Amino acid sequence: MHHLPYGLVELPWWGYCLVTFFTIETMFLGVTLYLHRDQSHGGLILHPALRHLFRFWLWFSSGAVTREWVAVHRSHHAHADQPGDPHSPLLFGLRRVVFEGAELYRAAARDPELLRTYGRGTPDDWIEHRLYSPYAYLGIALFVAAHLVLFGVYGITMIAVHLAAQPFFAGGVINGLGHAVGYRSFEMPSRATNLVPWALLLGGEELHNNHHAFPRSARFAVQRWEIDIGWLWIRLFRALGLARVRWVAPSPHPQGRRRELDAETVRALFTNRMHVLRDYGRQVVLPVCRELARREGQGALPASAPQLLIRHPAVLAEEARRKLRELLEKYEVLRRVVEYRDSLQQLWNENPARALAQLREWCRRAEGSGITALREFAQGLPAYAR
Fold it and tell me: In angstroms, what CA-CA distances link 339 with 220, 284, 329?
């Protein structure tokens, strides 16, 4: 009886912390590898045994139903930060998404039309119909019971920390802060950000901007100094024959300068268009702004000018858009830089066969624009083709 409050397993204080950390991290690993990269986007194919292991653990430790999670997430991508996004802080407010993200998720998961539209291709077997989907909360009940039996009164705190982790971190931090704070490597209509470059605690989900730029990629780290802990697990599982990678984000490494723009150049620019746009900001927008600030004198150009020019127009607030319009009206060189960028992006909407002639014309005009940074950028475009 003396040991009853401690359960069947008695551990030092750090042992209880370690077990809780392990259960939470395994849950996050299941979310990012199974629900996200495998089921939602298909860039990763897990071995059936590993796939079901994660499916069971997520049902057991969080009550997650694969079809619901996948449908809500795909809906988020289809309407990112636009009407229809089930948990955008732009629509619902940052505070609500951070602290009530689980409620927003459950509300979206109750929509049968959303499940029909975005939940296709998820498990449809006997155990899903007879256990996982109809009895989602049975898993959590068994998880709670197991903790109480094993760890006694200490299990109560362990349960509370575990059950709070997914809705707060995966639902609130990633879906909330991941669309509000952090850095952006790639510009797009979504407000998604990378929270930190070393994504170690949430399975790699912290690299949220990279994921929105390349949704199908099995690897979320894109830049050399970024770390995706989920990708390290994928490499381990792949070495063991338990995972297969279908697609990863392109990682261009331009080398030298080719003299001719050809079909290979067009294919490379289509493949690496997010990188090309990022490089345009770094190699054209920033140098032009620095040169303009030097020529106009200190304080003439607002410090926010480069970011206003680089940011996707869809993510700019009304006040920021007003400041951008004023800049473009005042400085012709900035207006031309934006126009060249927009016309370059239009090429990606063209058939690759037609885009070659238009790309050659774009480069010819850019090289004759009189803007040094723009000329050098145009001359370097063929280097993307290797």
Answer: 31, 12, 13
Whether pTM > 0.85 for this model: the answer is yes
Q: Which domain holds residue 128?
A: 4-245
pLDDT of 199: 94
Q: Are 279 and 377 in contact (CB under 8 A)?
A: yes
Phi and psi angles of residue 197, each rounded to the nearest 5 degrees, phi first:
-80, -15
Residue 253 lies in a domain: no
What burial letters (b/e) apply to 136-158, b meaning 16+ CB within 10 Å? beebbeebbeebbebbbebbeeb
User: Bridge partners of 228?
Assistant: 199
How does strand 198-199 pair with strand 227-228? parallel
| Whole-angstrom distance, CA of residue 381 vs CA of residue 83 | 36
H or E segment and range at residue 199:
strand 198-199
Report the distance separating Cα 72 and Cα 11, nearest Å.
Answer: 39
The confidence score (pLDDT) of residue 174 equals 93
Q: Which of residues 201, 216, 245 is at a domain's end?
A: 245
User: Which residues of the chain are modeled with pLDDT < 70?
Assistant: 1-4, 255-259, 386
Residue 258 in domain = no
Q: What is the DSSP letter of 298?
A: T
377 Cα distance to chain centroid: 28
33's CB contacts (< 8 A; 6+ apart) are 44, 46, 54, 203, 230, 233, 234, 237, 243
How is residue 223 written in tokens?
A: 């830049």
Structure tokens at 13: 């204080």
